[in-house]
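Chapter summary example.
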Amino acid sequence: MEPSNNNALRELRGARKFGYNFGYFGMYLGNMLISVFVFQFYVYTINLSSVLVSIGVFLQLFLGALFSIVIGVIIDNKKPNKLGKRRPFLFYGLPIWAITTVLIFTPPWYCPKNNAFYLPVTMFLWVLLIVNAIASGSILVAHASMLPEQSQTLKNRTSVAANGAFLTIIASILVMLFPLIIQSVLEDPESVKWWEPSGKKLILFMPIVALIFAITGVIGIASAFFSVDESFFVSAMSIAVERKSLKSTFQQMKVPFNDKKYRKFLMVGFNTQFSAKVVGIALMPFLIYVIIFYGTTFFIYVLVAIVCKFGWFFFWRKNQRKYDLIRAYHLCLVASIITSAFELLFLIQILSFEMRVALFAITFGTVLGGIYALGLFNNPLACVLVDESARRIDQDKKEKVVSEISGSYFGINGFMQSFGQAVASIFVGLFLFGANEDNQVVITIIMASVGLFYLFALIYLIKMRGK
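The structure predicted for these 467 residues follows.
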């Protein structure tokens, strides 16, 4: 599955591998803060309707995903300069991303007590979410599409992916830790509207957390920029990219869709990201209204998250080394499917707090560990499929072809993953509308439903292996 001439192949090692992954780590902090807390912040504090927030998140993800396809093709067709081919795109959208990450948690208006459909707040949130997504997409597509060129062996790609997944776990813990520290000092975590004392504290501290994460993102992308070397584009005339017409540029977007195996891979990504988004949005309501965490008990979640994320990471990393990528991925999905079904046990009202916490650690902890293990499989598999496609197109000029299609492949991949998250945001928003915002039964069913979409992902993965 990997190229054969190991002596001539590039790899990311040591500080360069860390620097490359630290770029995604920094972006992930800000993006996950928005992903997990924008729904919670605007629905439960700013008093905006969950339907309007869900529509905003859908627009953010869908339009950002569409732009990812376009930017991927634009990057593929860019003529390299002394800074490289993809490296400059890391900086183009960075200032806009950083500014909007902070502004999203600094709304100038709040919804009146009796009007959850207040237009100024709605438009403010929607516009910022869309602009933030486009800026973020331009950076992340450039970053991801570098990997097939920067790391050309399967062993190194899995190592880069493992390093990246490890940093992602750390980022996710930080994202949860800062707001949970705030949540733990609130007088009443179930009453956090902007006119209530607890809500006023959230409005004060959330922009500060967003600012810290945005600064980290800027530092991370700068680290990635200086860690990758694209001098081979300048020195090797054989991989120079000629300019293409607008028509041929749009035709290039079809290449990944015409790849039958890659289409199945895209559906795996759609369903796994749908599930991950459902978990991200429903997490805080689940902790507050189903597990009934309050005050310092929120740190039980932090402990469970740390143990399960790292524990399952090392477990799935071991399986990644023991089996081939698809087989290990298969096992990871099966574990999440089974434990998601057991989350329906939370519908039993007589469970004590201790029993709920124990069940939470087993079921949700396994699902959570699976979510953060996805990075072990997705990017290495995508790189393998890009290589396979390049060989089919022109075996003798494989490296040149990779430079011309990598952005398209990763752009489409980003689109499908974001589209899965967008559909999930609408799914959760419709179910948590109105009186269902704190309904234990509805929230539990939403959390358990991720197993169904993991099952869809598994079906497509099996079909992909059979191809």
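To summarize the output: The chain has 19 helices and no strands.
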